[in-house]
Amino acid sequence: MLSKDLPATTQDQELEYVTSCQLPTEWAVFKMHAFLEHATGKEHIALTLGDVADGQPVLTRLHSECLTGDALFSKRCDCGPQLETALQKIAREGRGALLYLRQEGRGIGLLNKVHAYRLQDEGADTVEANQQLGFAADLRSYTLCGPMLKHLGIGSVKLMTNNPRKIAAMEEMQIKVEEHIPLIIKRNPYNERYLNTKVTKLGHMMQPDL
């Protein structure tokens, strides 16, 4: 239930800030900020550490939800290790932000993601599986990051990503990318083809093992 203490000006916006609290983790005590996307009812989270509104570039990660990788330790992707590595880097720096966006399976949702995994079991790569289900290769949008970062007082970032779409999205929202920091995760036999497909079909900035 939304707080009745929120200013009226936050109502009826595409994205509404709800509340904040502390989130102690293995690496640091982060501040967790909750947002509601009115159009979809999805609930998005931002984690911050330190003073991110001081005008200096902020170490930042835009992370799309991946239940299988983030919570179930799947080795089929690099999502869980990227999430953990990003939080560790922010903790070491003592300052940073991570936006956790609820767009599972590159935007196709959890159940369709399981369908896509089955197709991958049968030989399709990640892009082919999405397309066989009638979806684009990547349906994710980063437009909500603009108002989230604005609420947090962040105008420039040191962006932890391998995805050029995220860099372009920040620039389109007039969030200056002061530095691009690769987030390369160790490969394993289960994610080898997945990571190579990211490079060859989605343009991610990683060296493929071909």
Task: Explain what you see.
The chain has about 210 residues and is α/β, with parallel strands linked by helices. The chain is about 35% helix and about 25% strand. It contains 8 helices and 7 strands. The chain has a 7-stranded mixed β-sheet with strand order 1-2-3-5-4-6-7, sandwiched between helices. Strand 2 (about 30-35) and strand 3 form a beta hairpin. The radius of gyration is 17 Å and the shape is globular. The termini are far apart.
List key phrases describing it.
210 residues, alpha/beta, disordered N terminus
Secondary structure blueprint with pairings:
Layout: E1 15-24, E2 29-37, E3 43-49, E4 58-64, H1 67-71, H2 79-93, E5 96-101, H3 104-107, H4 110-121, H5 126-132, H6 145-152, E6 156-160, H7 164-172, E7 176-181, H8 192-202
Parallel strand pairs: 4-5, 4-6, 6-7
Antiparallel strand pairs: 1-2, 2-3, 3-5
Cα-to-Cα separation, first versus last residue: 50 Å
Helix content: 25-40%
As a whole number of angstroms, the C-alpha radius of gyration is: 17 Å
- Number of extended strands: 7
Main sheet: strand order: 1-2-3-5-4-6-7
The portion of residues forming beta strands comes to 15-25%
Shape: globular
Nearest-integer average pLDDT: 88
| Structural class by SSE content | alpha/beta
Series of secondary-structure elements, N-terminal to C-terminal = EEEEHHEHHHHEHEH
Instruction: Provide the low-confidence segments as ranges.
Output: 1-12
